[in-house]
Known about the structure:
The protein has three helices and three strands. The protein is an alpha+beta fold. It has a single domain (32-112), classed as Ybab, Chain: A (2-Layer Sandwich).
Amino acid sequence: MGLFDMAGMMGKMKELQSKMQETQEKLGDITAEGEAGGGMVKVTANGKKSLLKVEIEPELLNKEEIDILQDLIVAAANKALENAEAKAKEEMQSITEGMLPNIPGMDINSMFNK
């Protein structure tokens, strides 16, 4: 690799780093929902893997159903986080597309998600 190629590569890395930083900040704006119990419990999460909202159908709010309710909240929360992570990954991949060679097994997202 010549000196010129190296300078070009360094420029691309700086550009990529700056785009990754911007996208990382946008991840808080990405929202995804997860539900359980046929929609009786809905949870909303963002691309930074934080829960934003929990919605519960009123009929689940009785003492006899507390165990079921707790399980449904966990299931819905996990689904929302999974969906948010998938959306965040798509967002990160879209900015790196065409900037770096596709190296099998190399997860660019993990390099910037600390």
